[in-house]
Design goal:
Layout lengths: L20 E5 L6 E5 L8 H10 L1 H7 L27 H8 L3 E4 L2 E4 L3
Length: 113
């Protein structure tokens, strides 16, 4: 349970019934200090991706591989000798050929039928 509005003043978790805070003695031993039982640190994805793509080396590493068919595991007859991910499977290749998927501006978009 996240103790965010409207639950920031709630003392016990609704699921496990544990208190939101640990009670710990302060260094002087006089008062009790409330420490959160858990803290969630949010790192936004979009700024991180922008930073990675801003780096020339990482930008090249994150692009979809575009090797020759032989390097991708496709023989002269178009049969797959190995598949690295779902996008290289037979059915996905057929769907891409039909225009079901397109890679535009580094974003995958699907066409609804």
């Amino acid at each position: 349970m996240a103790f965010t509005p409207p639950f920031e003043d709630t003392e016990l978790c609704r699921h496990c019934k544990k208190p939101q805070y640990y009670k710990a003695a302060t260094p002087n031993g006089a008062d009790l200090e409330l420490k959160p039982r858990a803290v969630y640190r949010y790192l936004p994805l979009i700024p991180r991706l922008k930073l990675l793509y801003a780096n020339k080396d990482y930008s090249k590493r994150m692009r979809y591989p575009t090797e020759s068919l032989a390097d991708r595991g496709i023989d002269d007859e178009g049969n797959f000798t190995s598949v690295r991910d779902v996008w290289e499977g037979k059915r996905m290749t057929e769907l891409k050929a039909q225009g079901m998927f397109s890679l535009t501006a580094s974003l995958l978009t699907t066409r609804l039928v």
